[in-house]
């Protein structure tokens, strides 16, 4: 009776190449030997390295500028910030005060011809290489400080870095920066692409001071 009941299943298992296990209670268990060989190959074979998925590209954060690793910093609007604003525009303020002091005596002495004389002096100054380099340094300094206002290149309190000195180089300009407390040279490294655009530079190189960690020279090489 038992053989007659399992005859159909046993015949199908033999055709498939399965192993037949006859239990003591008259039941049957069928096992495909190919699974055992495959399991043995997997256990004895060398483990394959899982593919490492590349991280998604980092997106710019929307807002004022595109800060890389730093949160957006609010601007400072206290007395120190106002004093720094006057210091940044010191050359323009001095020029605005000096022009009337020169123009008024000339107008009294020469009359309307003084305007032509002043215009000629301005045009002649634009041709002199030293004057042109000084004007270029002034524009680069203002562009750099404007970038610091539009990005997070500031202290957590909103203070701007101090531009101690700006000088011309054979292929561009160089800015000597005084990093305030809360800033580091790595902060400017994160914004090198923005510095290139703001200062019309083809290449930006940062030079750390060999003794003073708070001093940083930003070399701007123009195209």
TrEMBL record:
Regions crossing the membrane: 109-131
Biased composition (Basic and acidic residues): 23-43
Region entry Disordered, spans: 23-70
Entry keyword set: Membrane, Transmembrane, Transmembrane helix
Domain of life: Bacteria
The protein's name in its UniProt record: Uncharacterized protein
């Amino acid at each position: 009776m038992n053989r007659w009941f399992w005859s159909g299943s046993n015949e199908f298992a033999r055709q498939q190449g399965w192993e037949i296990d006859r239990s003591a209670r008259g039941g049957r268990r069928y096992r495909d030997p190919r699974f055992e060989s495959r399991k043995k190959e997997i256990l004895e074979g060398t483990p394959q390295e899982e593919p490492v998925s590349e991280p998604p590209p980092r997106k710019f954060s929307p807002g004022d500028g595109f800060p890389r690793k730093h949160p957006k910093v609010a601007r400072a609007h206290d007395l120190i910030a106002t004093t720094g604003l006057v210091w940044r525009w010191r050359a323009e303020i001095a020029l605005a005060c000096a022009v009337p002091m020169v123009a008024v005596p000339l107008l009294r002495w020469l009359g309307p011809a003084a305007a032509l004389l002043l215009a000629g002096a301005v045009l002649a100054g634009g041709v002199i290489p030293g004057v042109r380099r000084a004007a270029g340094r002034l524009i680069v300094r203002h562009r750099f400080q404007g970038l610091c206002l539009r990005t997070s290149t500031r202290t957590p309190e909103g203070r701007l870095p101090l531009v101690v000195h700006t000088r011309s180089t054979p292929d561009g300009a160089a800015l000597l920066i005084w990093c305030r407390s809360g800033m580091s040279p790595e902060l400017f490294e994160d914004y090198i692409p923005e510095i290139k655009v703001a200062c019309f530079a083809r290449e930006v190189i940062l030079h750390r001071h060999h003794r003073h960690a708070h001093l940083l020279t930003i070399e701007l090489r123009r195209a």
